[in-house]
């Protein structure tokens, strides 16, 4: 049996590697997506355009403005002389934030009263607006604390001391890049497996394969195991890039990581074989693969937290293998977790793999006859 399966595996690998289009799918898109996601997909803000409306023109107000301009986050692109200039700048998207300093700013500081500073932010992108306000509030708070220390004002009764665990510098690449391992592994595996049977049908060799001495189980193994091999190699390459190129720390167990990847790839292979069994042409197989991939990524927690989704959708995400592998990958990289921490995820992935492979076998038999 295994000799026959090995022959099918070799045949499938040669079919994939000798076809220029298949080689393109395996090499070029993952590299492009790794670079794009690694560098462009970030939650960090840099060089946010701001305008300053300083109505006080005193040394303390200039010190506050200097704190904004000295930050790597903000860049001044306009100086406002009258209040009428604020709305046109925001409407034209020339600035994302306007810092308006009240004319009584220094007087209120010297008399130990709250000194008004107004922050007007473009709220069309609510997530970005909240991040901008967070940065601006931290600058103003730090300015206030330094002023109180230097002028004998009473210190606030409590100070907030923030420490970020697992990601001390709050580098968004540490969150994004481990997720890319799961995304690209799914993309490559699903395309390789999803196109396998459809390619045979288009070439007219699928019927020839059915009349060979191979059993249907051997044919499924011969079609699925190359995807497991290619998916494992793809994941390993991206893991190496994450550690040595993007400097993301790998703190946990490699055994925990690769066990999760093995079960995840097995589940994706089952889904890919289901798509491949239903598709008649490679175009249909590609459409089916992308029809599955987009919702699986959106509902995985890759970019948006699952906790923010409606309760019904949160329950549906338990059926998504991408959700579980992201927990494993990020937990292994950032939290340093071992095998015991991911038992629920392993069980969910194993159940998904078993069900999808059984469904693929049933569909394969049904389509064969």
Tell me what you see in this structure:
The chain is 65% helix and 6% strand. It folds into 2 domains: 2-41 and 171-368, no CATH class; 48-150, abc type-2 transporter like domain (abc type-2 transporter like fold), CATH 3.40.1710.10. Helix 7 packs parallel to helix 10. The chain starts with a helix and ends with a helix. It has helices spanning 2-18, 20-40, 59-70, 86-91, 105-110, 126-150, 173-203, 206-210, 216-244, 254-278, 282-298, 311-316, 321-335, 343-368, and strands spanning 48-54, 74-79, 97-101, 117-121. A 4-stranded mixed beta sheet has the order 2-1-3-4.
Defining key terms:
369 residues, 4-stranded mixed sheet, 65% helix, alpha/beta, abc type-2 transporter like fold
Query: What percentage of residues falls in helices of 4 or more residues?
Result: 55-70%
Main sheet makeup: 4 strands, mixed
Number of helical stretches of at least 4 residues: 14
Number of strands: 4
Order of helices and strands: HHEHEHEHEHHHHHHHHH
Number of domains: 2
Shape: elongated
Task: Note poorly predicted spans.
Answer: none
As a percent range, the share of strand residues is 5-15%
Structural class by secondary-structure content = alpha/beta
Overall radius of gyration:
28 Å
Strand order of the largest sheet: 2-1-3-4
- Report the mean per-residue pLDDT as an integer: 84
First CA to last CA: what distance? 23 Å
